[in-house]
Amino acid sequence: MGVTLGLALVLGACGDGNSGSGDGGAGGGAKSAVIAIAADPLEYINPLNENGSPGIQIAQAMFAPLVATDPGTGKTVNVLADSVTPDKTSQTWTIKLKPGNTFQNGQKLTAKDYVDSWNLTAQGSTAWKNNGFFSKVEGYEALNPPTPDGATPKPTSVKALSGLKQLDDLTFSVKLKVPFSQFGLTLQYLGLAPLPEEVRKDPDAYKRKPIGNGPFKLDGTWNPGDDIKLVKWDGYKGPNAPEADALTYRFISNADTAYNEFLAGTVDFVDVPSTKIQSFKTDAPDQWVTSESSGANYLTLPAWDARYKNPKLRHAFSMAIDRKSLSNLVGLATPASGLIAPDISGYRENACKYCDFDAAKAKTLLQEAGGFSGAVNISYSTTSATGQVFAEAIGNMLRQNLGLEVKYTGKQGSEITELADTRKLDGLRFSGWGHDYPSIEDYLTPMFKSSGDANFSGYTNPALDQILAKGDAEPDQDKAIKLYQQAEDIALEDMPLIPLYAKQNAYLHSAKIEPRVSKYTGVQALYSTFQ
Question: Residue 267 domain-assigned?
Answer without folding.
Answer: no
